[in-house]
Structure formats: C-alpha cells, structure tokens
## 1
Amino acid sequence: MKRFHYFEISSTNDYAKEHLKTHDRVIVTADFQSWGRGRNNKFWEGKPGENVYFSYGVKHSKSLVYNNAAAYQAIGALATIDTLRTVAADLDFTLKYPNDVYAKYNGKYNKISGILVEQNFTGEKCTHSIVGIGMNVNQTKFAEELQQNAVSLKILGKNVVIDDLYNLLAKKIQFFEKLEFIQIMQEWTKNLNVINKKIEIKNKPGKWIALKILSDCRLMLYDEVSEQSIIIDNGDSIRYELG
C-alpha cells in the first residue's frame, strides 16, 4: 500500500482517486485541505496542520455488488470511532447515522469527526472505494456557526500525534475490511444505537421510530400516527438522542 502526504491539496479523496489509477491501495494525507468535502456537498472546515485529513482508497480486484460496496460507509465509521476509543479510552464517543462521530463534552455530544465515502461504479459493480475521514485533533477555535457543536481531542484534554492517528486509521479500516458483510453491519448497527429510538425528520411531521438498517445501509423509519414507513439515507435530515 502506497502512502502520499501533501502540505496542501484540494481534497484527499480527489487525490486518492487519481492515485488509484496506478496503485491498488493508497492512503492520502495532508496538512490542509482547501476544499475538503462532507456529505451533501458541505465543506469540511479545519485549520492547517491541526487535524486529520485522510483518505483510504482501494481498487477492487473483483467488482463488488452495490450492498457490499455500501458497507464501506460502515467500515469508515467503525474504523474512526475505534481509533478514537484507542487513543482516548476514557472518553465517551458515539456514532450518529450514518457516519458522523460525536464525543461527549460538557454533558452533551459534539461532533469530532465526519466520514465521506465515494465510489466508482460500472453498471451495478463497484470498481473502487474511497473512505475520506476528517477528524478534529488540535484545533481549539472553530467558525462561529460551529462553536457550539464541534469539539476536538485537544479540547477534550488529549494530546495525540496526528501521524499516529493516520497509522491507526489505516490499520482499523483494513481490519474491518476483512470481516464478513454481516459482521460489519452488526457492529455498525450496535454502535449507531438508533434502532427503536424516536426520530425527528426535518420538515416532515410525524412520530417516527427507527425500525431497522437495511442491507444497503439505508435506514427504515415507521410513523406511529400514519402507520407508514419511509427509507432514508441522509443523516443530516434527522435528529435523535445520541448515546
């Protein structure tokens, strides 16, 4: 596996995609991303040299069907929260569907990491997967709109070497990659801890309950009032009690 590190680039996911043209597995890291992406085309805000900007890319020797490719969303989330629990075992971390990581700080959960998975499909077959991870490490000041909801390892009292996090993330991803699909989904579902919880959906009234996570990683919700169910894949549109 080849690792590439840059002082400043647009996006580690973009560079990973380019390097997969000539390598089967790559890790791309950077001191700073000028255009780091989150889900739904959101910008991942972070200061130079203070955080994790990481992408893991793999070219599939055997094209994956859609459901197995979707598992990389779970793999990225599990690798990230497992890494954080390794370097800060005394802290409380949890996942928010589908793959944001939150840490408890001053009695509430604040976002510490986000994962963006991007894949290339030929028909129904996935030819490569890229897991991009942003993690707040040493940053202590955030943009005004993020101050009440963001936290970092430094704020939580942890001094961690960023390069150690890169190495841990790579090992954790490769560990979860080797598990059977059903094992990955079971572990992800357990860590999400969302099943049977009350869910609020943005701009959609109802008394929603999380029923189950489907094999393609989407979440099925049930409305106790209308007795109807819907399926979502956008965690930004829902709210529920974490932990």
Note: The chain has a mean pLDDT of 91.
## 2
Amino acid sequence: MEPYIQNNKLELLGKLAAMLSHEIRNPLSVLKLNLHYLRTYNEDVNQENIELIDTCQLALDRISNLVENILEFSRRPVDELEVLSFNEVIDQSLIILNPIIIRHSVCVTKEYEGNIAPLRLNRNKILQVILNLLTNAVEASAKGSKIIIRTKKQDENDSCFVKVEIQDFGVGISDKDKEKIFQEFYTNKKLGTGLGLSVCKKILQEFNAEICFESKLGYGTTFILKFPIDNLR
C-alpha cells in the first residue's frame, strides 16, 4: 500500500509543479523586462545598485530555467550538455546566493584545485545541485560561521574523479536522520518540501556521479560529490 500512496503523491506533485510553472512564467517575464529596463535605460543607477540588479537577473534566469525544465521535461529526451569547469559553476552559484550568504553572516572559503578537468554536463542541473547543497549549508550555519568549498582531482582504483566537498560547521545531522535524508518528502525544515536532496541524488545519477556525506550532530556536515572523468569527457 505504501508504494501506491507514494506514487500517487509523486503524480500529484508533478501535476501541481507543471501547473504552477505555467502560472509563474508571466510574472517572471514582467520582472525580467523591468530589470532589463533598470539596467539598460536608467542612467541614474549607481554601481552598487547595478551589481544588485545583475544579481537579481542571475537569480531570475535560474528560476526561469527551472520553470522551463519542468514544462519541457516530457518532450526533452536528451539533455543539453556542455563542457563545464566545476570551479566556474560553483562561482556562479555563489553569485546567485550572495544575498543569502550576507544575510546569514556566513563566510565562504574556496579551496579550488587549479587543474580540475572540465566535464560534459548539463549546467542548469548541476547548478541546481550546488545551489541546493550550499543553501542547506548556509541555513544550517550559525551567524559568523564558515563554509568551505573544495574541488580536486582524485585517483581511485584506476579511475579519475572530480571531487567536490561542501563543508559547514553547523547543526549537523543526527544518527536517526542520516538514513532518511535522501528519501522523498522527508525534511526537518518547517517549510521544507523534503525533495531537495532526493532530487540532487537523482540528477547526479544521470551523470554516473555519487553523493555522500559525513556529519556529526553539533559539529557540522560535509557533502561530497564524485564525478567520474572518463565517463563524461
């Protein structure tokens, strides 16, 4: 009975997501036009406000891409792939999340390895994964805390991987929750949907990538992503 109920939930969620996505498109278009006007035609905008507008445009583009992915999912059998630098994708994610990072007074430290091999991936889907993990890290962190993002190449059992680590020093995950966090609809957040990490895992599986984590309650959590280089180049 439980799988049947779960399938019904997923089917209903899909219909609701498609309906909401369709309704969201029109106000998104209005916002994009207004931001474009402010950025291009208003000579009185100072540099600080221009940077804020640019950040809003990046975030808006991200929302638009997510909406389009939902609406076109059923008729797009092949994802658009491009050669990506993981360091660059993470930098783009940090630009989008910068207002949230500032609001939470969290310091983000980047520890990038310079010779990371580029991978052939779908930019929007990988952005979705990184944004979700970074948002979780920020929300789990206390004010004045820090988050460390690492990228490096790793050789393991005759295979090469691009490894990405997102480490926070926040609340951590209890032992009883560790087995559940990738389950659909499971969340400890008051306003959470319980879909973020399960969606991340499914996206990563499309690219033969792995996700795991290390966590200790009260000391923080590190999420680890591993992308096989040979399979994606």
Note: Residues 2-41 form the longest helix (40 residues).
## 3
Amino acid sequence: MNSMERRHEIVQLALSAGKVDVSELALKFDVSGVTIRADLNYLDRQGLLVRTRGGAMASNRILREMPLTERRDKRIAIKRLIAQAARTLVNDGDTLILDSGTTTAEIARCLTGYRHLMVMTNGLNVAGNLASIDGIELLMTGGKLRKVSQSFFGRHAEESLARYNFDKLFLGVDGFDFHVGITTHFEYEAILNRRMCEAAKQIIAVTDSSKFNLSGVHKIRRFGEIDILVTDSGIPDRFASALESRGVRLIIVEA
C-alpha cells in the first residue's frame, strides 16, 4: 500500500469510527508513528481530518462513502428522470464516456434506439447495462476494480482514455460543494475523472440534488468548470444562479 492508498484508508477509518489513533494506525499499516503523524498532518492541511493530540478526528465537511449496492436504489425515480433528460443530449454517432455510478448506470439503460454509439466506461455496473443494447460499441477502460464502487481505476485505465477523443462525458457526482466544486471519495478515481474531462469535448455533470452542499475527499472539477448540469428542482438557488452566470447550461427535471 502506497501513501495515497494509506491516507485514503485513514480517512475512511476516521469517518467510520469518528477518530483515529497514531499508535493503532502504525500497527495496522505496519509503518512508523512518524509516518502516520506525517499522514495525519497532510490530511489535516487538506481539511480531510482534524488533528488532535495522539491522533485525528473526522472532518464534519466530508461526505461518507456508501457502497454502490446501498446507493443503487436511493432516489431512483429522480435518477431515472435525470437519465431520460440526459439522453436527449445524445445524438446518433456520438462517442461518449459514461463515468461509474448509479445515475450514469440509469443513463446507460436509456441508450436504446440508436444506430451506432461508441461508449467507454469505467463502471462495471454501467457496462452491464450497455452490453445487451443493440447499436452500442462498448469499450471498457480496464484497470484495477474497486469493489465498493464497482469502478475501474489506475494507470491502465488512464492510458486507455488517452488513445481516444470523445464528444461527451457524463460525469457522476459524489459531492458538489459551492466552494470546492465536484468531488469524489477515492483519489485514483478523481485522477481518472480528470483524464475523462481532458478527453471529452463537452462535460455533462449528472446528479440529483442531494449531492449539493456536500464534499467528497478528492476534487475532480472546480465549481463552474462544466458545460451542462442535469439535475432536479431541488438544486439550491445560489448554485443555479452561480452556474448560469459562469455559462453552464442547466437542465432541471421536476423532483
């Protein structure tokens, strides 16, 4: 386990238990106390933990990650409305990236009736929904599978994206903070998401309004650095106004 992976696990442990202890972490990860203190100091500077004597506490601004199996049916009716609205942005012949996630998985279900679409995804569940649809040329990023999110990540996934140019990216959201922007829980997924943004001509964020005013651990995109947002009518007014003032097109479905 490298430092990036260890720090991610430390944050998750703190979120689960409320606090973490230097000596217990050193024993768990088989590293020195000096290394753990450096990790905690780094995470404190990033605002991901709050440093305490002998350890650290969870930061109350960080969104806890839920396994995909728990997230799948949450607000499913709204996610399906968002997916149907997102489908109207797809034209026959488009090349697409579908990020992993539950909302993008619903978009995948909607992509029927096209003669030809090329779709790349890092989501195992997304690929499963696309696999049986006629007219879909399905590409997988490959890489290492992260089971909690059923998503692939890593150098192989990043390199596979670099070989293509895509028309549109449908980007899932774990948290959408007014000051921080679009975030996710896992650093390697954030890196891959940033590569997706670089590979696509148009960035379309898709999220239900429960993700606003929340923050994941790792930043993908600054506030306003997207082309289109598809969400529901629960979006806070200040978010809507600020995004529109930055030239972001809003597509809002009734919740």
Note: Residues 70 and 148 are 10 Å apart (CA to CA).
## 4
Amino acid sequence: MIRRESALLIVIDIQGNLFQAMPDKENLLVNTVKMIKGAKVFNLPILATEQMPEKLGPTIPPVRRELNGVEPIGKESFSCWQNNHFKKKLEALGRRDAIIIGIESHVCVYQTAIDLIENDHCVYIVTDAVSSRTGENCNTGLAAMKSAGAHLTSTEMILFELLRNAGDAQFKEIHKIVK
C-alpha cells in the first residue's frame, strides 16, 4: 500500500487544446481537482507538466488555480522522465511512489509510467483522472500500464488508502473532498 511519506502527485498535461479534446472532460476535471486538493491535505509534493504549451496552450485555469504556485514544467518529450528538469525535481524529492493523473493515457501518461517503473518507482494510475481522445486509446494505455506493473486505482480509493484510518486528523477534509 502507498504511504504518505513516500508519495507524490504528478499532474500531466491538463492543458488548453488537449483538454478540450477529451471525452467526459467534466468528470476528468472534477477528479483532477479532488486529487490536487487531497495531495495538499496530505502535504504531498506535486509536479505538473505541459506538453509544448506554446502550441497546446497552458494548464487550464481551474487546475492552475488548484496548483497554486506549482509551476508546470514545459516539455517536448512524451515521457516526463525524459525531461531533465522534471527528472531532477523528481529525484530531489526522494519520493518513490508516484500517483499519476493527466492526459493522454496512451501517450504521455503511459510513457511516463513505464519510464518511472523502469527506474524503480512504484506507479499508481488514477483511472478516473486520466483520459485520452478516445475511450479505446485510454483503455489500451491503462491495460499496458497495468501489464507493466502500474497499480490502477481511483480518486477515492487512493485518497482513502493514503488516509488509512477514519480517526486520522485529515479524515474530515478528505471526506469533504470526495463528497
């Protein structure tokens, strides 16, 4: 099971034109916001990325507001791990449990997950907070990540796994987020 002390949240490419192409983007946005709020409750480090923001646009405003001071790392590589700035920030944190949300499941999320797994990270993919332009591509990406060793989870499942106990001081805050 994931532990707060070793976990971080990675928010991949929830930006402008790319986000607009996602099916069920309202649900994606709701769960993205829940995950960011939950990460803040647990004081988890958060890293965010933008795929070629000059072409695809910046992180969408509701997510940017929730990130509140987390500056997205611009990248050209599909895998976040292939970006030196991202890799240095991640390694400096010393956290090995990566909770991943974002788009697209079969491209940037997938390639990042595989690179992290190959570099001794434990990867948790929040299935209701990732998406692709088609359901088939999203499902293919999820299946490939699971086959490679990633743990598939959901927003509520991972937040309650991090919480572990209804007597925890953060219970009320997490309960408000998932309601």
Note: The chain has nine helices and six strands.
